[in-house]
Every structure is written in C-alpha cells, then in structure tokens.
Amino acid sequence: MIKRKKTKKIKVGEITVGGDAPIRVQSMTNTYTSDVASTLDQIRRLEDAGCELIRVAVPDRLSALSLGKLKSKMKAPLIADIHFDYRLALISIKEGVDGIRINPGNIGSKKKVEEILRKAKEMGVAIRIGVNAGSLKKDILKKYNGPAPEALVESAIEHIHFFEENEFFNFKISVKSSQVLTNLVAYRMLSERCDYPLHIGVTEAGGIFSGLVKSSIGIGLLLYEGIGDTIRVSLTGDPIYEVRAAFAILRTLKIRDRGVDIISCPTCARCKIDLIPLVEEIEKRIAHIETPITVAIMGCEVNGPGEAKEADVGIAAGKNGGLLFSKGKIIEKIDKSHLADRLIEEIYRFIEKKNI
Ligand code: SF4
C-alpha cells in the first residue's frame, strides 16, 4: 500500500490538487493556441480521454487573447504556459484562465513576478512554479556545476520564499529534468523541504517508446514513494497518449482505476491465433472506455485459461479460435474470425452489468 505524503490543498478552477485529492492527470495541447478551432478540438479529445488539467502554450499576444474563447468552451481548468513576458501572464489572467505556469527565473525581474502574483491573487488564479533543468539561472548552474538536483531544488525554494513573502500560497511546484535520476533525487529533496503540492513528470522524455519508459520509471518511482499530486507524461506525439499513459501508470500502481487494463501474452511458437493484430485492434476499439475493467487476450492453453479466468473478461486461444471467459467462467467457444467482435460485445455487456 502506497502511503502518500500529505501536501497542502490548492484549487485550480474547480479542481482540487494536493492533500487527499486524487492524483490529477494533466496534459498540454500541441496546436497553435491562436488557432482556436484546432486547439478546442484537441482540448475536447483530451477531456474525453480523462485529462483533468489542460495547459496551452502562450508564446505571443494573439495566443493570450484566444484564451477567453477556449475557456468559454471547455470543462477542464485551463492553464496558460508563460515564459519571458509577464504581460502575457497578465492578459491570460484577464482572459479568465484558471492557472498559470511560470518559471519565475525567466520572467525578467522580481517586480514583474510580483505583478503576476498580485493579479493572480485578485482573480483567484493558481500558479505552478515550473523549475526546469534547461532554464536554471547562471549563478545556480555555476554553484552546482550544472543542472544537479540541488540546483533545481535551490531554485524552487528561492521562488517558494518569494511567493510566500508576497503572501501568495495558491501554488504547486515542479522541478523537472529530462534525466530520470536527477528528477528523482530533486523531487525527493523538494518533498522533504516543503508541503506544497508537487506536479511531477520527466520533461522532454522523448518519443512514444522512450518517453513511456522514462516516464513510467521517473513518475512511477516517485508515486510509489508517496510523492506527487499531479502528473504529466511528456511525449513527442499526440497528447492523448500522454493521458492514457498517465492513467496506465496510476492504474498499475493501484492509485486510480480508470479504463481497460489489457493482459496479453508476448506470443511464442505455441500461439494458436494471430494475436498481435488482434490485441492492437481491441486496444484501439476500447481505448475510450472509462469503466475500470481487466481484459485478458492470451495465445494458447498454457497460461491462457488461468489469466482469462482471473480477468473480468478474457479469451484463451485454442485450435481455430478460443474460449471466451466472463467473471471466471467459460461462456462460449468462438471461431477465430469472430474473436474481436465477440470479446468486445462481452466487454460492453460486462460494463453494462457493472454500471447497473
Ligand atoms: Fe506462448 Fe501460450 Fe504463453 Fe502466449 S500464453 S506466450 S502463446 S505459451
């Protein structure tokens, strides 16, 4: 059983982050924010996938001025990602965003950060202090001989003190590095030194393959140690995968249960059916399902019946087809041409019964 560290609670729009609130799943759009139609389309897909906090990049005035239109048409809290220009943060707040992500170190001056804090406080907007190994101040980099965990934490603590001096407390913090081990040590150190909610993730983790491995290790280990109140899996690809991966990590650690957990074998010379395309097809066709359910898709009689019996619904392949299991019982023998359709039908039947 994971014992989660109790952090302070903050509000981002209607969503609570930290304390005993569920560990929140975040993602970020990769459209041009000023292209409102495309951004909204992606926001809807993210919301459908279960994304609870949605961040958009605000690189220019036009993007900032598009935020009100986005906000009026979305359900999840909207977070503006700001770098360098504090005026973009002020416009974003005026446009009605729920949160701002800044790295106070690259905003230019304390006065400018103070102005953001003042406006955010006035409008009830949350802030994430987003310290990143790629944009640490020169003096800190020199002191620690590069972006070491201590450098990330010192920078974060400095910003935390500044926020506290300005009586701004509605914030969370991240100290991200693309190096999983640096990330891990930095978050552990930060978690010991403050009780503010932590947003965790491995930044710039790479494409789907490398990003999933790095994020599963980097985020998974921290969550297992009870650290983290909100997560983002950073992937070079469709952000929908980030949300699916985040829920898969939470599900694997038995922290939150959402969607389908597929149990399938790697296949071998004993495999009785064309399992790889079958699993790919089923994964695609049930990706939108929110109800927690375990589905086994197994290649032969060695481990197939055992796994299929343990799952909510499952198939254990045999000669020319397979046995369909539901709640531990064989309910039918299926011909190989109908495996996918029948399994999916049974999944829906199971969900319907579960939701009654
Ligand atoms: Fe091979 Fe059967 Fe095991 Fe699948 S379940 S890996 S087909 S032995």
Structure, explained:
With 356 residues, the chain is an alpha/beta fold. It folds into two domains: 243 residues, TIM Barrel (Alpha-Beta Barrel); 95 residues, Sulfite Reductase Hemoprotein, domain 1. Helix 3 packs parallel to helix 4, helix 6 runs parallel beside helix 7 and helix 7 runs parallel beside helix 8. It has twelve helices and 15 strands. The structure holds iron/sulfur cluster. Iron/sulfur cluster binds next to loops.
Short description:
The protein is α/β, with parallel strands linked by helices and 356 residues long. It is built from 12 helices and 15 strands. The strands form 3 sheets. An 8-stranded parallel β-sheet has the order 8-7-6-5-4-3-10-9. A 5-stranded mixed β-sheet has the order 11-12-13-14-15, with helices on both faces. A two-stranded antiparallel sheet has the order 1-2.
Which bin fits the share of residues in helices?
A: 40-55%
Number of helices: 12
Number of strands: 15
Biggest beta-sheet profile = 8 strands, parallel
What's the CATH first level of the largest domain? Alpha Beta
Mean pLDDT over the full residue set: 95
Number of domains: 2
Assigned CATH architecture of the largest domain:
Alpha-Beta Barrel
